[in-house]
Amino acid sequence: MKPVRFDYVAARDSAEAVQLLRQHGDEAKCIAGGQSLGPMLNLRLARPSVLVDLHRAEDLRLTEQRSDSIVYGSTQRHAEFEDGLVPDATNGLLRTVASRLAYRAIRNRGTLGGSIAHADPAADWIGVMVGLDATYRLLGADGLREVSSTEFMSAAFMTRLGAGEILCGISVPRLSKAARWGYYRYSRKSSGFSEATGIVVADPERGYCRVVLGALDIPPVALEQVANALAEKGVDEAIACTGEAVNEMLAGYSDAKRQLFTVVVRRALEQIGEKQ
Amino acid sequence: MNKTGIGQRVRRLEDPRLVHGKSRYIGDIKVAGMRDVAFLRSPLAHALIKGVKKPAGYENQVICAEDLNGVRPIRAESTLPSFRNSEQWPLAKEKVRFAGEPIVMCIARNRAEAEDLVELVEVDLEALSPVITPDQAKDNKGDRLHEHWPDNMFLDFTIGKDMPDIRDRADVVVKREYDTGRQVMNPMEGKGVVAWWDSQAEQLIVNTSTQVPHLIRSGLADCLGLSPDLVRVITPEVGGGFGYKCVLQPEEILVAWLAYERRGAFRWLEDRREHLTAGANTREHHYSVTAYADKRGRLLGLDAEVTVNVGAYSVWPFTAGLEAAQAGGNLPGPYAFDHYRCHVMATASNKPPFTPYRGVARPGVCFAMELTIDAIARAVGREAWEVRAENLVPAASMPYQNVTNKQYDSGNYPESLRLAKDAIRFDEVRQRQKTPEPDGRLIGVGFATFTEQSAHGTQVFAQWGLPLVPGYDEARIKLTPDGGVEVAAGIANIGQGIQTTLAQIASEILSIPTDRIRVSLGDTTTTPFSTGAYASRGIVMSGGAVSRAAEGLAERIRTLAAHRLECNASEIRLEDGEIHGPNGTLGFNELAISWYRRPDQLPAGDGNTGLEYTAFYKPRVDTGVFSYATHAVVVSVDPQTGKTELLDYAITEDCGRIVNPMIVDGQAIGGTAQGIGSALYEEVIYDERGQPLNSTLADYHLPGAAEVPHIRVQHMETLSPHTAHGIKGVGEGGAIAPGGAVINAINDALSAMGVEISRIPATADHVLQAIERRKTQKTLTSQHSSEEQQNEARAV
Ligand SMILES: Cc1cc2nc3c(=O)[nH]c(=O)nc-3n(C[C@H](O)[C@H](O)[C@H](O)COP(=O)(O)OP(=O)(O)OC[C@H]3O[C@@H](n4cnc5c(N)ncnc54)[C@H](O)[C@@H]3O)c2cc1C
After folding, report:
1. Which residues contact B384 (CB under 8 A, 6 or more apart)?
2. What is the phi-psi region of residue B536: left when phi exceeds 0, alpha when psi lies from -120 to 50, beta otherwise?
3. What pLDDT score was predicted for residue B782?
């Protein structure tokens, strides 16, 4: 389990990273924390001839505070969220998510942007960002563009990142003080990859409510019916209609899977109830 | 009192180097000019090899079966009735029989380049229909693995007799089917071997991560067609063995062959992916059990069928028959009953060759037997612990010969159950169960009691039909010129603490503290013969040999010291690190100086003295000595997700005289952690083509620190009448019971729902599906009794 031979370059900033990717074309791949790419290299599933390392690019590590959102740099690490070293736009949701993601050793290296760009459907951030309605900033040879988290992931391990583009920032809307969230992640082993995640974000002041299924084998799925019930009628009604909504949405899945997803959404909703 | 003798909590001598990362494993050995090898392994489970095309220019670095001149296949014949043998060529010849079987060996400057080379080799395979399950093997429909066999059965025989009277007499008949998943042993350090030719010694030096260096020497010599004295096997630090490293492996033969042929240094280090696929070789059993009991739940007879899915080949020296034969012989467990029949089968399949894993067969039989006891208890409407207690061999019957002629030497089995029941606070759990948990989880409590046959002797192994039967273990001991001690034994140090415990035994007899005792192990040139570290035999066998050797040395010390201390040898006592006579005291170093430097102080010409002694040991009886234990566990099951959590875990064990309580605790806890893996998490899943689907640790789930609860261990100490110091073995026990105890607890939790789990691992998916199935069933057949209920309550 050793990688095929590759060259390594560390980019000093995002512009240089983009330039290096363009220069080396299809053969090049960027590496952030290496916690997903590393195993893929070792298993020879990824066979780039050049690795462009992002973790020395200072501008990708910066946080930008705005009035209605915070833009996180893509190479900020899971552990920095867990440890509260970056400002929090979400009343603690990001910190909670980070603290349950993988193991500490992996959180020390793995990055927010790397996780999102990798688009493993079982990964945590990719669903949470949909729950928060985050926006991604992509930088390419043609400049900067923005893509909504709801549209970014097209299929398992597939995204709208263009050739030679990097994810440079993740813009997360600020939740208002009264906003509440629920997050329930089911995994067989503590810290294992999630097998079913329920994410609920309710921010009545901003008129925002979203309920999301994460850790399917497809991109995260929003349950609008449940979100509407929550916004209009409250937690109990939302819980009551969850089973049907999940069954409808996951019609092709096994009974056990549907049951599991119903449970995680209900439990995430229950957390909202408890916080009321 | 001797502070480092038997029974003392001596800190492990091996830990400082291990904890500081200073030790030397196979991967740390560097030899000038050493090359790495990588294997092209079969992508198919069953196929004919039509051709191998080596990349041009690399012919010399790419080795296939035809190039292995002088190499013989691994043949592990068993004398068990009905046994059929297999031939395993180290590189597959003509045919591959499991996904992961080595076909081509590539050599390069480093592993990465060797893997590059593997990618350039073209192998032409013609797929055959694979045999994956025991049922497929028994049906004899698919292609045969070994063409000269009439079917796909390694073994098929029956022990015991039919029991028509019992069938008529029984008040209760319980029928169950049980399954245990196929597993991978996953020692932290994989397999590895570094071999070179030593021109000075004119010997092939094979450093290999093994439990059985002396056996590997014999096996290598056989397969390479060399005289054993040409081969020296050395064990470096071994990062876990568990049985995986107690058989001769094809890669060991291949690397040794290269070193011999080319007179160079070569290395293979197994990686985790190779291990998870080509090493998926253990634990897969199927049971079909019919138990007959009276209305109190007293067992009258057991009629069983055991099938072990062995895989492709018979491993050397433990064969493809040992696991199934042991399962058949050990199923009755710690229970007293008189009628037993077992149909024993070992089926061939296109999976890696079965290798005994910590507990050998007993984790399976304990699971089957302990679930059966609980099922009987449910059928007669009594508490499982009561039924269990009444069926256990009572202390008053010891020594006891059980229904398969096992000689239970000593102990109080029911007492271990009673103590474990108290430790787990059984009554409080029953109380807690009366009120529903606020979060909807269900609480359950379960037990498993077992015997751990340890230090099986010569006759026992001979009965299992092995090609190589262990007998005496040997140890050599020496007083060094500075008054310290050197102990040498052929057993391997595989992390079990044997270096420390052997030193404690020597210390007990000589009164010299363990920090002055140097123990060297596992080298066929520098240590005397032992078949090695397996089957919970080390502390009994090597321990016994060290004990005898230390006695011998003590006698010599007394003889020599008698001259210096001007008394009779019989008047001399070894105490507190000194030699005491009626008229004075002598340091061990002073005596050593007399012997090594100032022989003029000693009388002339007694050729039989000297300060070195070699002893040979096996216990008085050959039938093994039986440790035993009860595991008790409290679980919670989330009925909505199927997930089980272990809330409390208590063990009461008895391994005879305890040499070091901390090491015994460590063995119990470590084994239990592995057993929890078997119970809840670990299984290699195969598709219908025989492809292993979980080939990384992301998919093959091992329990982590968070999954293993705090385990409380209590000791009993009933000496064995048969062994030196009354010691029994303890290496495997922990791994035996968790499957039975945990699933009994899950079934206790689910009993109100009428759900019963009968396979391990009881993954959350599996439990959830069982619950869902039961729900649908209930709605479908609410007025009928369910078909899945297999108890027949007879009219009395
Ligand atoms: C044992 C283990 C357990 C894990 N458990 C979990 C878990 O429970 N939950 C979870 O969510 N994750 C888990 N992970 C994944 C982990 O969180 C990774 O850190 C993360 O998925 C990838 O981040 P990275 O920075 O390491 O990315 P890398 O591995 O460096 O890169 C991943 C991919 O993204 C690309 N990439 C990286 N950064 C960028 C960028 N800025 N722009 C464009 N492309 C980019 C790379 O080219 C590569 O294709 C686990 C990983 C391991 C090894």
Report:
1. B373, B374, B377, B378, B446, B447, B744, B748
2. left
3. 52
**DSSP-based three-state secondary structure for B17:** helix
Pocket lined around ligand 1, Cβ cut-off 6 Å:
A 29-37, 54, 74, 101-102, 106, 110-111, 113-115, 117-118, 123-125, 161, 166-167, 193
Q: Which two tokens stand for residue A151?
A: 């549209």
| d(CA A14, nearest CA chain B) in Å | 31
Distance CA B337, CA A263 (A): 47
The pLDDT value given to residue B784: 45
pTM of the full structure: 0.96
pLDDT exceeds 60 at position B621 = yes
- The single residue listed with the structure tokens 């009120």 is B435
Residues of chain A above pLDDT 70, percent: 99
Q: What is the DSSP letter of B753?
A: G
Residue nearest to atom 41 of ligand 1 (CA): A167
Strand order in the sheet with B573-575: B573-575, B578-581, B584-587
User: Between the CA atoms of A16, A19, A25 and A31, what dihedral angle is there, to the nearest 10 degrees?
Assistant: 20
From chain A, the residues in CB contact with B271 under 8 A are 1
- Residue-wise pLDDT tens digits, B385-425: 999 999 999 999 999 999 999 999 999 999 999 999 999 99
Please write the tens of the pLDDT for every residue from B306-362.
999 999 999 999 999 999 999 999 999 999 999 999 999 999 999 999 999 999 999
Give exposure, B58-97, as e/b (b: 16+ Cβ within 10 Å).
eeebbbbbebbeebebbbbbbebeebbbbebbbbbbebbb
Residues A125-149 pLDDT 10s: 999 999 999 999 999 999 999 999 9
> Is residue B78 within 8 Å of B321, Cβ to Cβ?
yes
Q: Does B261 touch chain A (CB under 8 A)?
A: no
Tokens of B501: 């415990």
Q: How far is CA B251 from CA B43, B211, B220, B270, B326, in A?
A: 18, 16, 11, 9, 27
Reading phi first (left if > 0) and then psi (alpha if -120 to 50, else beta), residue B593 is in: alpha
- Tokens representing B729? 């073995």
Average pLDDT, chain B: 95
User: Strands B485-489 and B517-521: what pairing?
Assistant: parallel
Cα–Cα distance measured from residue B251 to residue B253, given in angstroms and rounded to the nearest whole number = 5
String of DSSP letters for B385-431: HHHHHHHBPPGGG-SEE-TT--EE-S--HHHHHHHHHHHTTHHHHHH
**Ligand 1 center to residue A29 CA distance, Å?**
13
Specify the residue for token string 């039986």.
Answer: B626
pLDDT per residue over B118-173, tens digit each?
Answer: 999 999 999 999 999 999 999 987 799 999 999 999 999 999 999 999 999 999 99
Q: Does A5 contact B116 at a Cβ distance shorter than 8 Å? A: yes
User: What burial class does residue B242 get, using C-beta atoms within 10 Å of its C-beta: 0-12 exposed, 13-18 middle, 19+ buried?
Assistant: buried
- Of ligand 1's listed atoms, the one at least distance from the Cα of A36 is 29
CB count, 10 Å around CB of B30? 10
Q: What distance in Å separates the CA atoms of residue B193 and residue A106, rounded to the nearest whole number?
A: 31
Planar angle of CA B298, B302, B308, nearest 5 degrees: 140
Alpha helices in chain A (DSSP H): 14-24, 37-42, 78-82, 93-100, 104-109, 112-118, 124-132, 149-152, 224-233, 235-249, 255-275
The preferred substitution site among A37, A74, A116 for testing ligand 1, maximizing ligand atoms within 8 Å of CB, is: A37
| Inter-axis angle of helices B213-224 and B250-262, nearest 10 | 60
- The answer for residues whose C-beta is within 8 angstroms of residue A49's C-beta and 6 or more apart is A5, A6, A7, A24, A27, A28
Tell me the C-alpha distance between B572 and B575, whole Å: 10
